[in-house]
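seq as requested:
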Amino acid sequence: MTDALTRIYVDADACPVKDEIYKVAERHGLPVSIVAGGFIRVPQHPLIERIAAGSGMDAADDWIAERAKAGDIVITADIPLASRCVKAGATVIAPNGKPFTEESIGMTLAVRNLMTDLRSSGEITGGPRGFTPRDRSTFLSALDSAIRRIARGRAAST
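struct tokens:
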């Protein structure tokens, strides 16, 4: 069991791996905050809390970014939110299992901004590829590894 100071924050509006997060969190005894702009259905479980952050443009992102800290895990595909949480010291993982790190977040933001510009100018009309079973498997592995790494870090510092 991992120290209860670790919390998993989920940017839930378009998260395709919520069920997987619930299972992993229960196995490790970790609390989970499911954060969305409005109401979202979550299982009735003492470790899972539902947060309706409000309908503002970035209300859910702001709620998560204000709370995420070192030792926490944030699940999001939102690159600006990932950047804010990485800067706060949190471990950040995309739903496809891709980690966002201090080393990668700058380039990831730059590519995102370039793609946004290209889409708005009509140069590119497609979006990201679809979510696959392999992405789900990669995510599960990344989440489990992150939890173990944080637990080892906490154990070493005590």
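The radius of gyration is 16 Å.
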